[in-house]
Structure formats: structure tokens, C-alpha cells
Amino acid sequence: MKLWHCRDARSFRVLWTLEELRLDYDLVTLPFPPRWAAPDYLATNPLGTIPYFEDGSAAMTESAAICEYLAVKHGGASRLAVAPDEPDYGAWLNWLHHGEATLTFPQTLVFRYAMLEKPERRLPQVANDYRRWFVARTVLAENALADGRDFLCAGRFTVADISVAYALQFAETLGHLGEVGPGLQAFWARMQERPGFKAAKARQGA
Predict the structure, then answer these.
(1) CA–CA separation, 151 vs 149, rounded Å?
(2) Which CATH superfamily, name and number, covers 2-80+197-205?
(3) Cβ 50 vs Cβ 15: under 8 Å
(4) Do domains 2-80+197-205 and 89-194 have the same CATH topology?
(5) How far apart are the first and last CA of the chain?
(6) Does the pLDDT of residue 176 top 90, yes or no?
(7) Burial class for 137, CB neighbours closer than 10 Å (0-12, 13-18, 19+)
(8) Which end of the chain has the least Cβ crowding within 10 Å, N or C?
(9) Which helix (DSSP H) or strand (DSSP E) does residue 65 occupy?
(10) Is 200 helix (H, G, I), strand (E, B) or coil?
(11) CATH code for the part of the protein at 89-194
(12) pLDDT tens digit string along 96-122?
């Protein structure tokens, strides 16, 4: 297995999953954004996006899909996946994709128009609008954790938690983590204490 990664980018979801599963993999760390800062990467992934992941004949570019792939195909007894015959199978899939499609999407626009673009191309109103959009979209996860649950579904840690927790990490990077609810802030604090999370941070730091 091989992962192309940028520090704390969406590929961190995959890196964290690999470390939770204690799998052997090669890591290629690129400057961000790679399509500009490492143009040779386009020969590997013509989209120029992160992550890019290979496992034998599998070649994947979507972070939540790669986490699902790893949990199902290589998860073994880790139970980072939820099986179709479990009551929370639908919830697991929904949270897994909610983290990317609902939560991370507006943050990418905040990041682009508040930080990534050259100063003359930044759009503070767009960034602020999408920041508010992100915060409003966290209500579902906040409500799910309001009854004191430690995890989003199935009563255990799964890659769905990784997917949503990454959006909170991104919020912290962007400076608006303090706007989410107390349940999500406590959830994020718990996630950072996981050995797999710490191992992923150490691996990308190395």
C-alpha cells in the first residue's frame, strides 16, 4: 500500500486509518497544494488532488472511500467498519460520508478564499458565508453526541468518527473550532488521545 499525502490535508483521514489498523504502507509526503508545488505529481494523479492511494490494482482518490475500503478489506477484527447486518450500518455509512460531503466541503471554500488565494483574490464575504454554513451543518453531529455517547454510531470507534473528526481538525486549523458545540469539542479532544491519531501525527511529522 502507498499513500500520497500532504500534512493535515484530507489524506490525514487515510493516514489515521492506516495507523489505527497498524498496516504496512509507504508514505509520500508532498507540499501543498501539490498540483502547483509538485507538478510532477500530476503524472501519478492527473487531478492533482490529495489523497492518492494504491493497493495492488486499486487506485483511489476519495478520502472517505479509502477509509471505508481499508476498514472493510483490511480491518480484520478491528471493527472500524460496521457490517450490513448491524443496526447502525446505515448510520455508519451516513456519518462516514457526512464528514466529507457535508462538513469538509464548505471548509475548503473558507480555506481557499481566506488563506490559499493571493491577497488580491481573497473574498472575505465568501469565506465568512461558508464558515457559517459549516457551523450550521455541525448540528446533526452535535445532537448525536448530546446523550453522552463517545462515538457517532455502533457504540464503538469506527472510520466514521475519523471522517467527522477530520472536519473538526480542519476547523481548528481555520480558527473556528470554538464555534461548534460542546459535544463536538469534547469528541475532538477524545479523538486526539487515540494512539492511532498520535501515530499518524508522528508519521507525517517525520
Answers:
(1) 6
(2) Glutaredoxin (3.40.30.10)
(3) no
(4) no
(5) 18
(6) yes
(7) middle
(8) C
(9) helix 63-73
(10) helix
(11) 1.20.1050.10
(12) 999 999 999 999 999 999 999 999 999
pLDDT at 67: 98
- Those residues with Cβ within 8 angstroms of residue 159's Cβ, 6 or more apart along the chain or in another chain: 13, 17, 67, 68, 70, 71, 80, 81, 96
Pairwise CA distance, residues 112 & 123, whole Å: 9
3-state secondary structure of 147: coil
Give all strands of the β-sheet with 58-60 in edge-to-edge order. Answer: 26-29, 2-5, 52-55, 58-60
The structural domains of the chain, with segments of one domain joined by +, span: 2-80+197-205, 89-194
**87 cis-preceded (ω within 30 degrees of 0):** no
Q: CB under 8 Å to 90, separation ≥6 — which residues?
A: none
**pTM of the shown model:** 0.96
**pLDDT tens-place string over residues 75-91:** 988 899 999 999 999 99
Phi/psi at 181 (nearest 5 deg)? -70, 165
